[in-house]
Amino acid sequence: MQKKLKTKEYIYIASMLFGLFFGAGNLIFPVSMGQMAGSNVWPAIIGFLITGVGLPLLGIVAMGISRSSGLYELASRVHPYYSLFFTCALYLTIGPFFAIPRTATVSFEVGLVPLLAKSQISLWLTIFSLIFFLTVLWFSLRPSNILTWVGKILNPLFLFFLAILIITAFLNPMGSVTQIPVAQSYQNGSFFKGFLEGYNTMDALASLAFGIIVINVVHNLGVEDPNKVAFSTVKSGVFSMSFMAIIYASLTIMGTQSRGIFPVSANGGQALTLISAHYFGKIGAVLLAITITLACLKTAVGLITSCSETFVSIFPNLLSYKKYAILFCVVSFAIANVGLNNIISFSVPVLMFLYPLAITLILLSLFERLFHGDHCVYQWVTGLTIFAAIFDFAGALPKATIKFLHLGGMIQIASNHLPFYNDGMGWLTPALIGLVIGLLLHFSRKGQAIE
Q1: Which of 2, 27, 216, 290 is at 20 to 30 A from 156, Cα to Cα?
Q2: pLDDT tens string 311-346
Q3: Closest C-alpha to 300, from 346, 342, 332
Q4: CA 104, CA 304: separation in Å to the nearest integer?
Q5: Domains of the chain from N-terminus onward
């Protein structure tokens, strides 16, 4: 007889899901999007929730249904070499190249930047990030229950303070959403803009990396059947992700309302600091900074640990766990010192390339029973998606880089001939063409086998 999870077990899984996916860095993107979307905020919110909430949930469900032991095995359905490339690229993206450096810079932007003169920012960023990553390395090399206890205290405190801030902002709005001007980038296609903004959370990528953790928890609670694992995950995930959706939407609206008093900030961290200081003064800003810094510290330790363990498993004879942890902390420290705005701008092209591959892998895994997991379908969809995603990657590069690499002609061709390219979705049509070709080949071979 298959075990059914109790209500308290569902709550436990939902709480863990929330802790895995909602980091302090996720606060800054909805607020920033809200400031720019203005009165067009609701289509942007819907697009953001699809990639920031819906896809991570589907990613975890896909891991459960596929019975894969992890991302490496799941991606190997395309090809072993592709699996190696995609796994390394994904972990480096949610690890030392972008997500981990972002934990330090978000903390710095919220905590210290408001107190510093512009001439001091570079020096203090170096000092702050050095202390931050030395602390991260210390915890990463000494697994301890301290971080667990900090999380148990910090998460409720974090959510309590955030709830007070959001409720206060709604009761005393700085402006009316319908009267807030729309930034030029959101005047047309605000839904697609919000969809792409959800990439910045990196949660869909994280769902492929950490989904196995959730699946193992469900298994350890006594659920073995893959369908029931997926059902248990979905039931817990709907609660957890619904809560995340409410927070994301509230933060976005709060960001939009802030335009009634403040101009568009350079990034969401600065906007959040201004909003907090407006309602609660310097004490509120300080409490927000301390809470976010501790939350980011905890997130960074978890990512360093996860990335180091993954690379040890993939390349067991290359470096030890300790050396990987040191290497990733050093790389993260170096990248953090380019600043939050630069990290975000540099990450956008990479996410424009990786997200289509993650989306197609998730969807193919969810519906693979329809084509019996045929590698041919995986390969055609992924191959054409990669081809188109390269154009999306090129188009998202900084203008100076495009000019230096002479990519303008290639981008213009894509803009003229690739459907939805100008909306950042140039990969969609090639992926669908790959799906049709793959399915035709699959069913034609199946028909020949029957004959």
Answers
A1: 216
A2: 998 998 899 999 999 999 999 999 999 988 889 889
A3: 332
A4: 13
A5: 7-341 (1.20.1740.10), 367-451 (no CATH)
